[in-house]
Design goal:
2 copies of one chain form a homodimer. In chain A, about 45% of the residues lie in helices and about 20% in strands. Chain A is built from 17 helices and 14 strands. In chain A, strands 1-11-10-9-12-13 form a 6-stranded parallel beta sheet, with helices on both faces. In chain A, β4, α6 and β5 form a beta-alpha-beta unit. In chain A, α5 runs parallel beside α7, α8 packs parallel to α9 and α16 runs antiparallel to α17. The longest helix of chain A is centred in the first third of the chain and has 19 residues. The mean pLDDT of chain A is about 95. Chains A and B meet through α5, β2, β3, α10 and α11 of A and α5, β2, β3, α10 and α11 of B.
Chain lengths: ~425, ~425
Amino acid sequence: MEIVFNPPRAEWERYFSRRSADDDTISAGVARIVERVREEGDDALYALAESVDGVKLPFIEVPPAVRAEALSRVPEQLKASLRTAADNIRRFHEAQRHADVDMETMPGVRCVQRPVPIGRVGIYVPGGTAPLVSTVLMLGIPARVAGCGEVVLCTPPARNGYVVPEIVYAASLCGIDRIFLAGGAQAVAAMAYGTMTVPPVDKIFGPGNRYVTRAKQMLSVSQVAIDMPAGPSEVMIMADDTAVPAYTAADMLSQAEHGTDSQAILLCSSRSQAEQVRQQVIRQLEDLPRREQAQGSLQRSHIIVMDDRREMVDFANGYAAEHLIICMEDPWEVAGAITCAGSIFIGNFSPESAGDYASGTNHTLPTAGWARSYSGVNLDSFMKKITIQELTPDGLASLAGTITGIARAEGLEAHARAVDVRMSGATDRDK
Amino acid sequence: MEIVFNPPRAEWERYFSRRSADDDTISAGVARIVERVREEGDDALYALAESVDGVKLPFIEVPPAVRAEALSRVPEQLKASLRTAADNIRRFHEAQRHADVDMETMPGVRCVQRPVPIGRVGIYVPGGTAPLVSTVLMLGIPARVAGCGEVVLCTPPARNGYVVPEIVYAASLCGIDRIFLAGGAQAVAAMAYGTMTVPPVDKIFGPGNRYVTRAKQMLSVSQVAIDMPAGPSEVMIMADDTAVPAYTAADMLSQAEHGTDSQAILLCSSRSQAEQVRQQVIRQLEDLPRREQAQGSLQRSHIIVMDDRREMVDFANGYAAEHLIICMEDPWEVAGAITCAGSIFIGNFSPESAGDYASGTNHTLPTAGWARSYSGVNLDSFMKKITIQELTPDGLASLAGTITGIARAEGLEAHARAVDVRMSGATDRDK
């Protein structure tokens, strides 16, 4: 990892730009898979599981007996951990509930904003060697708190053709009892269009590889809503000499182990601190199981020494990190100046992994600079805000001139007449 | 307009499906325009204004003197109407502000959700024969209430090459003083990438034709956030015999005058009511300026008689209308059963035009069935919810087993070690 000293602002842009995934090469293949699932439904899911995943699916929807058996295979200690995490996530998302807005903008003009849960949501949980059990909680718990009527979970089959037990348990903590074995672009298509077995949904959540991401993007144009654009995970750490180098190094490696696409950037206040962290990273890397993935990521990572605290804030806002760790004096004051970040971690005892798994905040966060424009997944992601208005005759009368004036300025005469007809007082006009 | 009687549920789907715009034919052309603006910046805007709009732009950014002159040409009465509308919109969006969520999920584990305004937003206001002045207010007012730092407004030049005066005035009511003359896909590209003159933004709002919509979709994949998928406007009216046929007809025509792509669907409770409304539509259509556009739309519209109130509600939720007017007994009870709609209008004195212009609710609403998954534009559309967590040493200690347990179940050892290193109590580990 290079150490850089006070880079001039003119050079900051090169640190902000993320490597963009080359999606075009896979678009045609993803489109074919999506079309096939749309036309052939379940048959396509069975066929693609075999050709793509090398698995002969015993079923698409996991039967109750299989789920029950899977639950019995989850170690008690892991069950307890998942319950603790689920409780915190639930409490934080429940705290996000708010009442209807219900007020009069003028006498006789009542306006309401009412949150209503999205009816049917789909959650995609990637498979692979170590499935992301935490993702089930991060998406399933807020769906339940929001009151979504139907929650569909798709996950690729494990090697034996069955479902990963931990995923079944985590799903049960969210009240999800419909689990479907499907992966990749075909799972996204199944949830978007529905098949004989998989219900169609109104919004799809969840991380995934390039194929999953591309399928979500394609289908979000006209078929189904999605949570947010996806990209490789990243962390930025802002540290002064109140930070502990061993902790900082551990946080950078925590991010790096995700893989070569991940990125960790440290902004720190002194050369000596930069050197200490770098030493710690080298030392801690030695006996890390995912050392190779981490090394690949560290080559793309940076340690930047900045003298000026205000510069650090501006740099952090320009980068717009998915995760931002602040280990500095007056950290809440620094956080107050942050306008672009997915989730912020304050102090020496708030490792990113706390938020990834159990503090209660949501770990589905905007990457690739999208933190400039997007929120992480939260309770509102599972809701729609419907507005309602009711005008009394007097309320409409007081607004009549305003409405008709603007309508006519826009050349929309019938819009004006819809007010005039009511103002004319005729309730049984010529029939 | 056909009158249909109690269609069986098996046939409802044909009423729910919207005509989908054929976007693919224009994608290549839009991509070329976008690329040209990205590479040539202002030069492309001047060139495209000439070749596409037939206008020789005098400037891209409207100078203060030109804006001041334009303001003087807006009739006083229209200014007053726009101020009244702006005040109501402002009040309703101010009422949507809420405080940070700030709580402990467990002792020593503090979690915060903080709304922060998006820094730079772009508003596109289509031009044409009658520019949508109201759109300036609907997007500009919430941007100001949210506290967005920079608001950029793009609108095509009027025929004389200058800007529409009413747009300048509406913009001034929103505190927007940067207006750029650009239209179509090139305006969207300019705001997404920035040019020498047009600042880049983090999110683009605003309606537009197929080219604008396609450019927004394309650029939302990796460049800029957008408000929502767009489509032709629509209204559904739920009416029993408490509704007034002349009013209902006026509301249907108000929607129909938008053009042949628009749709109006009436659900009513009796044949005689259906006939009365149809008669009123024919009568009111006679002297409507935009009669041809309205007739085209009415051919795609329906009057559906339904005996059962519950069936009406289910149908309305299945259709997921952009605008839903409820003129029935116990209308708020009906509204309480609605789960999919953009904005609801209650009672005989709440024409859709009230919401389009002045009640205070936002008129930028989900069409084409997207009301199943999307909210209309609201204050949160201009904000990001950043989460913050701070754990005390004891708070982390109580969660340590949970975090490391799940991290190891996911095969992410460094995530677990980021906790372990803090629990080991070593603050100055071997350097």
